[in-house]
Design goal:
542 residues; alpha+beta; 9-stranded antiparallel sheet; 8-stranded antiparallel sheet
């Protein structure tokens, strides 16, 4: 019988004194250095850590010096029997043991060819059908095209991926000798691929569902019901759409650097009237391009240059649709395009249609020549958002002095007409460099004017800034500026008209067509300049 525990008794004063004495001795031991020949416990942990690190370094060195083992070499090769039927179709048989189980599972390939031995690959998947054609020139490597799009450039490497996957059809594991196709998505496969080989044999591969845990995809081969597991990257090319294969290059750059269009027309639902631009060949006008419709005027230099640079050498964000139907054109907003451009070049004609821009800044762009719909950034086809107002010139007057023969300025009862004659001669400086010098002879009522003074006056005329459109209604003509030329260009008439609810600007008309608005203060100053010039005074620059 176990002894009963006695109740705890209060320690005696002697016991307490003995306990405190032991505590003090322990504290003293902790503060004393370790004795020689004994291991200090405080040094034990660091030493063990150093030892562990040393061991780890040795292990790492051994690992680095040990040749890497190829894990794939440790994976057994599956036992399958390949054959070709009387019809030329490749088949495989999966041997089984006496219990009906797979005799030897593992990795393998359902075909043993190289891409150059393939002549054609027919692909059918959720995106549609297409056929990859292969040509192997003598002594060269395989080149690919899409049937029906033989002249279309393909995205680099896409067709090669399909051919590479189709030439061997590798698998990771045999899943079933006789599988129910519905259990693996093979009754309605995601892709069916028929491979035509140059030895006149064929092979058919079907891609079913994705396996669990991203293990791969189920595939079947030939007419058999065997099921295999393939790595995703071994069959993902079979899921490509035709749009994944077609190049994103919409059109090519001009054959010669700097070659421009001879004429271009922009139209569409965004434009009340078609806009026509041509390169400026009028030596009297200081502009790179002219707008000839819906009005005749020099074109805004920046806007016109942007448009000219957004017609050739276009590259899409993506290829959306190949051979679109009428319904697809309507679905993408292209049956009645928001904007269309047609530009004539020496080497080709470019015609493109654009949809209205989306909130993401993209437009659908249709090439009737290629019969392909793309997406592209609106900024890359700025002609789709231009306007007559945007193409109005930066300056109301943009003429070259050597082409002018007469300038008339009239406002109310004040009217001034200046006759102009210029001559140009070539001079050679001391270094042998040639330069052209233009001399201006301007007169008012037969009286010669100072050349420098007249040049400042003419510079001020060319300095009338176009400040854009205005909604105000115009009234009477406050100033009329007439320009006559020594070339075959017809006279230009610029009018400044008052505005009903805008006292700071004039409405500016160019040969009867509204160009925009200009500063009233600046335009009124031109009348004062003309009066000063006519009296032989000094005209100040603006």
């Amino acid at each position: 019988m176990a002894d009963k525990k006695k109740p705890a008794q209060k320690p005696s004063s002697d016991a307490l004194e003995s306990f405190l004495s032991r505590e003090q001795k322990q504290k003293n031991k902790k503060t004393q250095p370790a004795k020689k020949g004994k291991l200090n416990k405080k040094l034990l942990i660091p030493l063990l850590a150093v030892a562990a690190v040393a061991v780890l370094v040795v292990v790492l060195l051994l690992v680095r010096r040990t040749p890497t083992v190829d894990e794939s070499a440790l994976t057994p090769e599956a036992n399958i029997i390949s054959s070709v039927s009387e019809s030329g179709e490749h088949e495989v048989m999966i041997p089984t043991d006496d219990k009906g189980n797979i005799a030897q599972n593992g990795v393998g390939s359902l075909l043993s060819y190289v891409p150059a031995e393939i002549s054609r690959i027919d692909v059918e998947n959720a995106s549609g059908t297409f056929s990859v054609l292969s040509e192997v020139p003598e002594g060269g490597s395989a080149t690919y095209s899409i049937e029906g799009f033989e002249d279309e450039t393909l995205q680099s490497g896409a067709a090669d991926e399909i051919a590479n996957d189709a030439s061997t059809v590798p698998f990771k594991e045999i899943i079933a000798v006789h599988g129910n196709p519905a259990d693996f998505g093979l009754d309605h496969p995601r892709a069916t691929v028929k491979i035509h080989l140059r030895d006149n044999s064929t092979a058919t591969v079907r891609v079913g569902n994705e396996a669990a845990a991203n293990a791969g995809a189920y595939i079947s081969f030939g007419s058999g019901d065997g099921v295999f597991l393939a790595a995703d990257d071994a069959v993902d090319s079979f899921l490509y759409s035709l749009t994944d294969l077609i190049s994103k290059t919409i059109n090519e750059a001009a054959e010669e650097a700097g070659a421009g269009f001879s004429t271009l027309t922009i139209s569409g639902s965004h434009f009340p009237e078609p806009i026509t631009l041509v390169p400026n060949t009028d030596e009297a006008v200081d502009a790179a391009y002219r707008m000839t419709a819906p009005m005749e005027t020099p074109a805004n230099a920046v806007e016109a240059a942007d448009i000219a640079g957004n017609i050739r050498d276009l590259y899409a964000e993506e290829v959306v649709c190949v051979n679109p139907s009428e319904q697809q054109l309507a679905d993408y907003g292209l049956s009645k395009p928001y904007a269309s451009i047609k530009a004539e070049y020496d080497d080709c004609t470019v015609a493109l249609d654009a949809s209205a821009p989306g909130e993401d800044g993209l437009v659908y762009l249709y090439s009737p020549d290629k019969n392909i719909i793309y997406t592209i950034q609106l900024a890359a086809v700025c002609w789709a958002k231009t306007s007559v107002e945007a193409l109005m010139p930066e300056m109301i007057v943009s003429v070259k002095l050597p082409a002018v023969s007469e300038i008339s300025v009239s406002s109310g009862s004040r009217s001034y007409t200046f006759s102009v004659a210029t001559s140009t001669e070539t001079q050679t400086d001391d270094d042998g460099n040639e330069q052209e010098l233009t001399t201006v002879n301007a007169t008012y009522n037969g009286k010669a004017l100072t050349e420098d003074n007249f040049r400042v006056f003419f510079q001020n005329l060319n300095g009338i800034k176009n400040q854009g459109a205005t909604d105000s209604k115009s009234g009477s003509t406050a100033l009329k500026l007439s320009l006559r030329y020594s070339t075959d260009r017809s006279d230009d008439v610029i009018e400044a008209c008052t505005l009903s609810d805008d006292s700071a600007h004039y409405l500016m008309k160019y040969n009867g067509k509204v160009l925009g608005a200009a500063s009233k203060k600046y335009v009124d100053g031109l009348v004062s300049d003309a009066e000063t010039l006519s009296k032989g005074g000094t005209v100040g620059g603006r």
